[in-house]
Protein 1
Amino acid sequence: MTQSDNPEKPRLSRESKEEALRRILKKHPGLAGSEATPDAAQPAAIPEAYYRIEKFAEYQSIALQQDLARKVDLESPYFLEHDRIARDTAVIGGKEYINFGTYNYLDLNGDPRVNEAAHQAMLKYGTSASASRLVSGERPPHRELEEKIAEIHGTPAALTFVSGHATNVSTIGTLLGKRDLILHDRLIHNSMLQGALLSGAQRQPFEHNDVKGLDELLTRSRRKFEKVLICIEGVYSMDGDVPPLPDFIKVAQKHKALLMVDEAHSLGALGKRGRGIGEHFGVNPADVDIWMGTLSKTLAGCGGYITGSAALISLLKHSASGFLYSVGMPPPIAAASLEALRIMEREPERVQKLQENGRLMLELAKAEGLNTGHATGSSVLPIITGSSLLAARLSKALFEEGINAPPIIYPAVEERVARLRFFISSAHSEEQLRHTIRRTAELMRKLSESPLPVQKG
Ligand SMILES: Cc1ncc(COP(=O)(O)O)c(C=O)c1O
């Protein structure tokens, strides 16, 4: 067909582009998306907020927050550059701080034995697995680490992923689908929520640690779904408390639901030997269907793991996209975490010291009348300020005195429970803990009474 044969062509010169578009859309309504109107289809009519990143509402909200923080003389307390290993103390910008901003719970990051294990693995296997384990193959530290993780949890098998966050996303996204239901504690970590979104399953939160509420939800809804997954944490990452695991197991079994426990903050912190919430309550490991943990906290590495039945691990190994389509863990990191687990086993006194420190810090905070929320004296201690601004000011005041305790503010938590969060380590001394809590209480009182200095301009 030539141009002159084309019946649409001559009409374009007589009618406006808009009219032409309207006519074509009328003839082929399928071409218009539900939103598309002739106007919207004109490039000039598309708002900048839809195609220029600096105009995105999400970016504007960050920029506004930063601007407000500058106005009240609060520079961001995040992304600080550390000069050396962050342990009970950290060096930031050349100055030493008592450090509560990193989860080096058993002080194994920087341990010479852990460094040496990583060094030897690096010399032998390099710094990268160089592709997915499916295609590039495995290295001995991968398998040895997974065997050790399974042994520690008392489970038949384990699988490691390159990120703790991706472990939850990929595992939940793989196991559940749109005919399923995910019931999770209201305070569950973002990674589990993202996994739930990916899965397409229906999702329903229950009140924090509310086993009875969960039981009622299941009584009402269990039969409407195929698989049901219950998600809880071993030690809650923002709140530092421990759920009643045996009660959750009973409810999961009663309703034939799967139970998943995220041990990110409880491995190394709970149980006589630091084996986590399972050891703490003395439960049968097989009563939890999916144990999850991270290598980035107690285990001085980076990545996450799932441990449980051989069927669970085989299913994930062959179908979890975050494992199959992602590079294998760097061999030096796998070797470092393996060595950290071995040291945790050989030196249970580290676990006991962390537990003593957790209890002491909670007692001290309570004695000062500080609001510690749900905390039960474990690896994480929140001190709730009830306002993001007060949390930011308190954190800044402590920082100026040589104490690093980052604030957790809205939207990471609800505004009314904005807080400082302290990660406790076995390396902290009693003196460091006493000094920190005393100054936190004093500064909190002072700041609550003093007005906010606002910068001009
Ligand atoms: C409870 C919980 N699960 C999972 C993760 C993700 O782990 P990672 O930081 O190792 O990716 C975190 C991170 O802090 C966490 O607190």
Protein 2
Amino acid sequence: MADSFDGQVALITGAAKGLGQAFARRLAAAGFEVVGCDIDPAIDELEGSAFRADVSKPEDVRRVVDAALEEHGRIDLLINNAGIARGSQAGQDWELGLRDYEEMVGTNFFGAFLFGRAVAPTMIEQRAGNIVNVSTDHIYPTPGLRVQGHGGMDLYNASKWALNGLTLDWAASLGPHGIRVNGLCLGATDTPMLRDIAVGAPEEVIATWIQPDDVCGLLLELLSEGPKGRSGHNLGCWVGRPLSLEDSIEVGHRR
Ligand SMILES: NC(=O)c1ccc[n+]([C@@H]2O[C@H](COP(=O)([O-])OP(=O)(O)OC[C@H]3O[C@@H](n4cnc5c(N)ncnc54)[C@H](O)[C@@H]3O)[C@@H](O)[C@H]2O)c1
């Protein structure tokens, strides 16, 4: 078990608000040096190294990773967190579908792919590292439910399926280099994203949502397992169930 993260460097995408902001604050408190990026100018308020960057643009990704390496010399943790969610469906307008594809798959999947590709060579050289991909419970429904019931989000769901696939494949290919790769497949979590989607949700429903701080707790538990910890796990994080490794259910894990 690793109990101190002092001097380790974490790169978090989408760190201006929501979960990414919570990860940044909690990891900094745990001793990490934090590097964050976002398209939202509010990223400038991050305590740590902040970059305005679009994860779907290869040149932005290279700029962030190169600058992080120049400043810190290493990257111990990559959290592919930046994401966008909106409805989309097979019958929709052609042009709208193309725009949604570019934006949603570009951010949720291509962005994670780019950061993984940009960071992996450094982690391989270090012979150590962690990659955490932030995904959704739309794919791993709450135990007891047959489906989570999110028809009408084909591109969001497919982008996260693809992301979960990266988690499994990278875990296998990077494992021999001492790099762990896991996914957090979250249910409804109280962030600006969900507040925007669920405008008008009753207070009693909002009260059930997962708190970003609880997800941070699970993340730290995962990291604390150290180099021999689990890898290739897409962890289900469900509303109404405890968020801890002991209570988590993994689907499709490698080891
Ligand atoms: N909130 C939930 O209920 C929930 C559930 C499951 C999964 N997730 C996932 O959690 C992650 C974080 O979501 P959140 O709820 O904190 O959302 P959020 O909208 O509150 O925060 C997301 C952040 O990502 C940034 N971002 C968006 N597109 C970007 C891009 N192209 N480049 C750089 N930054 C970009 C946004 O500006 C924002 O700061 C996402 O991947 C999301 O799909 C959220």
